[in-house]
Amino acid sequence: MKKIWWISLVAMVVLIFSGCEEEPTGPIDPPSRISVAVDPTDATGLGLIVSWIASPTEDTEDGIDGYYIYFNGELIDSTEPGECNYSFRPDGLGTISVTAYRGDEESEEVSYSTQTVDREGILLGGWETANESGIAWDRESGEYILYSARAEYAPEIDVVWDSRDQTLNSPDVMPEWSDLSGLRATAFAPDDGNGYPPDTGTAYVSVTIGDSYYVKIDGDYYLLLTVNSEDDYGNIHISYKFQKIQGYKRVY
């Protein structure tokens, strides 16, 4: 009788504990369509808003516990389920990543890079040469286009190199184009080592070979332009770092 009772007790304990085992959960789908824009509430132009489309797992029975936000591989914060945006001010350029998580499980990441579009070896012609001395940038790609400094191209140009007085100029202050309308307004400031420009700039800047200059162009886009060298004919070679996030001032 005692043996039967003992067997029954063991069977009951096994049944109870087996009933308490957690059901296995499904994999976590990652969030999607991450985007980054400048934070309009941050007057410095250095704050960003990260947004993404929720993980489909949010709406399943298993659900998720929220989202992790990483910057350059380092976990910086988390949000609750349904909270698919996050504001912060990075201290440099890099990669922003978001994952969905549940307990110790994490989805694959979705990422966005704030790195600049970098180009070098670009020749801007001296005023008396046949080379193009005007340059403009495509706002979406960050790629450049060179133009001859002729009145017909003036409305397309962002920056003009004038070798006569060694200046980079906004098109709307060029004396040769004073009777033209619809010219772009560009602002310059010397690179101060901060990685982002000051609040104010000037419509032209006197160039020192080897120095870099912050440039703000129409549409509220920013870049860092470096004058690398000049030849005997007034041609200069430049390089640049173009920030594709509209309104975001950080260029390094």
Blueprint of the fold:
Layout: H1 2-19, E1 32-38, E2 48-53, E3 66-71, E4 74-79, E5 85-88, E6 95-102, E7 105-106, E8 110-113, E9 117-124, E10 134-137, E11 144-147, E12 159-162, E13 167-169, E14 187-190, E15 204-206, E16 212-217, E17 221-230, E18 236-243
Antiparallel strand pairs: 1-2, 2-5, 3-4, 3-6, 6-7, 6-8, 9-18, 10-11, 10-12, 12-13, 13-15, 14-16, 16-17, 17-18
Structural description of this entry:
With 252 residues, the protein is mainly beta. The protein has 2 domains: 82 residues, Immunoglobulin-like (Sandwich), CATH 2.60.40.10; 127 residues, no CATH class. The protein has 1 helix and 18 strands. A hairpin with a 5-residue loop joins strand 17 and strand 18. The N and C termini lie far apart (82 Å).
List the main descriptive attributes of the protein structure presented here:
disordered N terminus; 252 residues; 2 domains; 1 helix; single chain; Immunoglobulin-like; 7% helix; mainly beta; five-stranded antiparallel sheet
Give a brief outline of the structure:
The chain has 252 residues and is mainly beta. It has one helix and 18 strands. The protein has one helix spanning 2-19; strands at residues 32-38, 48-53, 66-71, 74-79, 85-88, 95-102, 105-106, 110-113, 117-124, 134-137, 144-147, 159-162, 167-169, 187-190, 204-206, 212-217, 221-230, 236-243.
The H/E string reads HEEEEEEEEEEEEEEEEEE
Which strand-content bin applies to the residues? 35-45%
Largest sheet: 5 strands, antiparallel
Helix content: under 10%
Number of strands: 18
Distance between the termini: 82 Å
Give the rounded overall mean pLDDT. Answer: 93
Question: Structural class of the helices, strands and pairings?
Answer: mainly beta
Number of H/I helices: 1
Radius of gyration over all CA atoms, rounded:
29 Å
- Describe the global form: elongated
Spans of at least 5 consecutive residues with low confidence? 1-7, 13-20
Whole-number count of domains: 2
